[in-house]
Amino acid sequence: MSERKELFIGSEWVAPSTGRHIEVISPVTEAPIAQVAAASVADVDCAVAAARRAFDEGPWPRTEPAERIAMIRRLAALYGERRDELAELITAELGAPISFAKRAQVALPWSMMSALTDIAEKHPWQECRPGVYGQDIVLRREPVGVVAAVVPWNMPQFLAVTKIVPALLAGCTVVLKPAPEAPLDALFLAELFEQAGVPPGVVSVVPADRDVSAYLVAHPGVDKVSFTGSTAAGRQVAAACAANLTRVGLELGGKSAAIALDDADPAAVATAVRFSGMGMAGQICNALTRVLVPADLIDDHAEALASTLGAIRIGDPADPRTEMGPLVTERQRLRVRRYIDSGLREGARLVTGGTGLPEGVRRGWYVRPTVFSHVDPSMTIAREEIFGPVIAVIPYRDEDEAVRIANDSEYGLAGAVFTADTEHGLDVAARVRTGTFGVNQGYSMDPAAPFGGVKASGYGRELGHEGLDGYLDTKSISIAPPPVRAV
């Protein structure tokens, strides 16, 4: 079992203020694999103070964008050299299949680094515009300040990178708080920041429990909180930030609908549903978990989903042939099982899956991919975010009803429509109230496109120019001509 006794505070490795630690448990063996130091509120105070000094007194916020871009490119080069090692670490701590870890958990954030630096190079850091009353107006985009970045366990590197990198490119300083279930990859990232030459105080990484996380987001020394997590936790974060008037961005839960029109290919829909979330056993916020289909085609779609999801190879995530691993914790597995039981109890038809362990699996927090058919939109499995490999197939009578069902949700993160007519698909996309959407695919996490939700899925955007702007304040300067001195 590995052990990490230090915290990365103020861009340096330091001893924690207490002897508390976080135990990392393998979702496969259910045994401990690592211990890391747990940050206390005193450690958070030190991290925020270091970030505050670096922002208020240090050179980082006042460097040219090109210098900050160069540092992130050094980080990306180091990241690329060690990406296989990082993927293996994520597989061990999260149970993500190694093939998925290499492709999505590591290669995706690595590519994001390069893409985000390209965006920063083209960003309008300063611009001029004529004023209505004749004076010139200069707009400067300046860093917002100290950023607290709080990320969950399901896609830890992607979510950390898409917060930290834009914040640093903007000139902010950052305190990263990873989830206690996934601290190892965050500390690995801290090592890379150290090697890339991050200036003193600019980055801290403080693994901690929920109480310390709550202390961080309510800290008066923080200027912005960027939070990804559940909607329930997001409400608490928003309330804490409101007390200090701290700027906050929230990327929260989802219950995304895939609308299959009557000309959609059931096999193509099933494939898209599979790739939208099954690589992480359904533990993806924008996974397509509600599949809305014409009532007279429901059996065709249910069978296609059962065939596609039932063929997923489940097993040891370290095996390159494995396509789906376990859920991250025993608590998460019990939660998903309760939802499956509720679907059965409320009258949905179980097409495939269920609460039992997959064939050949004797231990680990596994749940089989599960498809329910003839699901009523009022059922629990159709309304609440399960965060597991459970799909609800919901029939509709006509397109208007399909749109109504898709919108009849507290969430609004993502969605998709499937049709042979792309223009028709775009018309449907315009009618569904979400922050992101896909036509004939689940939403693609393109770095050029802003990502975020509406309603209970949160507010604010990450990625694209919009994501960079989230870490910037716009200062407007009006300029009058100098007075003419009397001779």
What does it look like?
- There is one protein chain.
- Helix 12 (380-383) links the parallel strand 16 and strand 17 (390-396).
- The chain contains 15 helices and 23 strands.
- The radius of gyration is 24 Å and the shape is globular.
- The model has no long low-confidence stretch (mean pLDDT 97).
- The chain folds into two domains: 2-252 and 457-475, Aldehyde Dehydrogenase, Chain A, domain 1; 256-439, Aldehyde Dehydrogenase, Chain A, domain 2.
- The termini are far apart.
- With 487 residues, the protein is an alpha/beta fold.
- The strands form six sheets. It has a seven-stranded mixed β-sheet, with helices on both faces.
- Residues 13-477 form the Aldehyde dehydrogenase domain.
- The active site is at residue 251.
- Belongs to the aldehyde dehydrogenase family.
